[in-house]
Amino acid sequence: MTPVHRPLSMCLALLLASAGIARADDSSGGEDKRPNTALAACASGDVNKGIAILGELYAETRNPAYVFNQGRCYQKNNKLDEARGAFTEYLRIGTSEPPEDLQRAQGFIKEIDDALARQRASQPAPIVVAPVQSGEGRTRALRTTSIVLAAVGVVAIGVGAFLSYKVKSTNDAINNEFANQPYVTDEARLEQQISDGKSYETWQWVGYGVGVAAMAGALTTFILSGFSASGSAAPEQPAASTPSVAITPTLSRGGAGGVLQVRF
Questions:
Q1: 241 lies in a domain?
Q2: Which end of the chain is more exposed for a tag (fewer CB within 10 A), N or C?
């Protein structure tokens, strides 16, 4: 049989075609770059991206190492609760993993537990809000508050009245000492008395203001406790056991005051 001789150009074309098919096969079966992408994402702080890639790889391969790496990704980005959960899951599913990797996971869990304990210790104690009292307890608290405020009001108004008296006394002293003098011989003493009089005058109004505010608070809490200012009991309370607070304001030339009467 006579051999068939192919042209040289046709042989080269077949060789190039074969080479091209091999290169395509090699590129399609190359190394998966997703683990490196996940590592880069975790290192740069893109935790969601890194965790998503590792989860996809675990779903495809069922390799517990990807769950381990999720724990490391969380831990390096200070998401300690999520990291602990990932390492715990790794210990559950990785019973056939190398012993050194299992020990590492256990060590990381201990580190995380210690870090979480330090965080809890450094946090301020929570503010505990006492429950609102109801019924008799609330009534007693309001009564007590009303009495205390009334007492504070009486004291404050009394202080205001005393300071009003000091203002009047200071004015009288200045008039008696300096009014009949053709000229002031002791300017320092006069200035001191005037300064004292101004201070007394300022603080008398402070006393009156605090007293009026405290009296108003006492009246408000007294009403809220279920009793009227005249001492009559609310319908649900027995009249015999009704406490009362009577506040009688007084007014004089030297200032204002009040008389507090309490009955239990």
A1: yes
A2: N
